[in-house]
Amino acid sequence: MLNAVGGHRTTRVGSGRLPAAGGAVLAINHTSYVDFTYLGISARSVDRRLIRFMGKAELRRNLVVRWLMWGCRVIPVDRSAGHGAYVAAVDELRAGEVVGIYPEATISRSYEIKQLKTGAARMALEAGVPIVPCIVWGSQRIFPKGGARHLGRTRTPVMVSVGDPLPPVGTPDELTATLHASMTSLLHAVQDAYGPHPGGEPWVPARLGGSAPTLAEADALDATGR
């Protein structure tokens, strides 16, 4: 629906890397309030898999996001009592479902990969399923945190890239470090393929000449709660 309304041009890279059957954790970068929709649509149309995303329960206060979360069967995470959502996600994985999680835990306003939480690794290890790194790029131009929204017919290009699955081995910290390296490499490859990143644009990372905050600056903003 969002793709149809906005006329967004979604390109998928990495077909065949999402397991055709059985449980898997999809670890997704987080740059926008709607990036889960593009990965969800891609997985449904290309891989014939439904992704059960995990998302912050408070996001349901936004009517558009609430509708999208309902349509994607999102597992709501109450951060004051998050263990219940963790248990539910592991149960879904053991039942052969694909669970999508943002290991950065919150939107990256720098559009770089933030420090990752260990939850995705712990889920994969406990359920005995692979972690699949995923990158969505371009959705930060549509519905970013703290920036202008462009929800009309913008024909904004969005790229979805699925990386090679990581086996559930090692400790949570070791697997998380491997995941961070994989997601960072995948992000850079997607950015190279995406096309021009005009200098000074707010959706472009500082590393590529944009006006988005650096990773350190974004972390400082998050610490202030703004």
Q: Approximately how much helix is present in the residues?
A: 25-40%
Quaternary structure type: single chain
Topology-level CATH name: Glycerol-3-phosphate (1)-acyltransferase
Radius of gyration: 16 Å
Strand order of the largest sheet: 1-7-6-2-5-3-4
CATH 2nd-level architecture: 3-Layer(aba) Sandwich
The low-confidence runs, each spanning 5 or more residues with pLDDT under 50, are none
CATH level 1 name? Alpha Beta
Give the averaged pLDDT, no decimals: 86
Description:
With 226 residues, this protein is of the alpha/beta class. It has a single domain, classed as 3-Layer(aba) Sandwich (Glycerol-3-phosphate (1)-acyltransferase). It is built from 7 helices and 7 strands; from the N terminus they run H-E-E-H-E-H-E-H-E-H-E-E-H-H. A 7-stranded mixed β-sheet has the order 1-7-6-2-5-3-4, with helices on both faces. The two termini are 30 Å apart. GO terms for molecular function: 1-acylglycerol-3-phosphate O-acyltransferase activity.
